[in-house]
Amino acid sequence: MIVKRPRRFLPDPDQGETTFVGDLLRSETVGGSVALVAAMVALTWANLDFSSYERFRDWQIGPLDVEQWASDGALSVFFFVAGLELKRELLVGSLRRPADAAVPVFAACCGVAVPALIFVVINRGTDNLVGWAVPAATDIAFALAILSVVGSALPSQLRAFLLTLAVVDDLIVIVVIAVFYTSSIHPIGLLVSVAAFGVYAALQRLRVRSSLLYLPVAVIAWGAMHESGVHATIAGVVLGLLTRVIPDDDEVRSPAERLEHRIAPLSSAVAVPFFALLSAGVQLTGGTAVLHEPLVLGVVLGLVLGKPIGVLGGSWLLTRFTRAELNDGLTWRDLLGVAVVAGVGFTVSLLVSDLAFTGIEREQAKTAVLLASLVAGLAAALILGRRNRQRREA
């Protein structure tokens, strides 16, 4: 899943020097590209031989099938990294000072509300309203990948704005998942998970560094959260938020930095692509007729139009009626590209589609997410690329 500079990882004192492959996989561009390839493989496979794709997706491994391992297991790794980043930015990053974070945070809130409102208006009177949160999410990896590829000459403050926006956006959607997409709660599982969180926090406070202790505690927290009825990815976020982000005097880096250094390649090269492979395989049938379905129309318009309207409108309202201002070096032209790229929903939007719908409605929602993300990504690449050329020539 709010940094003032491009992410650079120092050598890990526990691991030795960083490796070329590890550094490569920590790049947002490479991580987003791997997930995109996985999604294309899933689409091709599902449309050439859907029965074999479905058998693979339903293959039972232990207590869960492969699709559940992807959505509940792999994405927990992704959300753990997002939790680490969010905690770090809240304490030592660009969310530390409310004045600096005010505009992107408010823009993120409006960027969630406007797409949801568009979806509700289009789908009013139908059973599809349960999917109102599908167009609400922004995919951190893909959004940053597009900005990295076409925005080399754009100001670094723009990346910080986008990352703040995307992380807050995903945090809101995570809360939505926990509150609105939990059908029933089993208290024992929830209590065991909370107890595991307490043990993890205590180990952090005691400055314990052995992964042999943390790993079983994290697995217990995840398993108990899954059994509680709350989506298991919430465990990843909570564990990330409980991790120390401020290093002691005798530490080169904090536990959060060390963990992010180790786990970011796993998240970008394995967890997110694995989820994309298991979630993006939808059959593209019906041609353009599917665009007339209220569910599809609500998701597409929510992401492609609602996101830019919400992000730009929220930013303008806050700067117009309060003392908040855009960061130095940013212009409204720069912000337009970020507002459009926020419409790339992909990972979290696909997850909400899985939680909200079943059967044909789920396939329609996923088709809409993929289509909208493609349109928003291409539009953002054009806008940001043009702005990048203008900046370079100025």
Helices and strands, with pairings:
Layout: H1 20-26, H2 28-48, H3 50-57, E1 60-61, E2 64-65, H4 66-92, H5 98-123, H6 140-150, H7 156-180, H8 187-205, H9 211-228, H10 233-242, H11 255-279, H12 294-321, H13 332-341, H14 346-356, H15 359-393
Antiparallel strand pairs: 1-2
Describe the structure.
The chain has helices at 20-26, 28-48, 50-57, 66-92, 98-123, 140-150, 156-180, 187-205, 211-228, 233-242, 255-279, 294-321, 332-341, 346-356, 359-393, and strands at 60-61, 64-65. It is globular. The chain is mainly α. A two-stranded antiparallel ribbon has the order 1-2. The protein has a single domain (33-181, 231-393), classed as Up-down Bundle (Na+/H+ antiporter like fold), CATH 1.20.1530. A hairpin with a 2-residue loop joins strand 1 (60-61) and strand 2 (64-65). It is 71% helix and 1% strand. It starts with 19 loop residues before the first helix and ends with a helix.
Which key features would you list for this structure?
394 residues, mainly alpha, Na+/H+ antiporter like fold, two-stranded antiparallel sheet, disordered N terminus
Give the second-level CATH assignment, the architecture: Up-down Bundle
Fraction of residues in β-strands: under 5%
Q: What's the total number of strands? A: 2
Q: Helical content, roughly?
A: over 70%
User: How many domains?
Assistant: 1
The CATH topology is: Na+/H+ antiporter like fold
Order of helices and strands: HHHEEHHHHHHHHHHHH
User: For the record, what CATH class applies?
Assistant: Mainly Alpha
* Average pLDDT figure: 87
N-to-C span: 33 Å
CATH superfamily: Na+/H+ antiporter like domain
Structural class: mainly alpha
Q: Which word captures the global form? A: globular
User: How many strands, which pairing sense, and closed or not: the largest β-sheet?
Assistant: 2 strands, antiparallel
Given as residue ranges, the uncertain stretches (5+ residues, pLDDT < 50) are: 1-17
Quickly count the helices. 15
If strands are numbered along the chain, what order do they take across the biggest sheet? Answer: 1-2
Q: What is the radius of gyration?
A: 20 Å
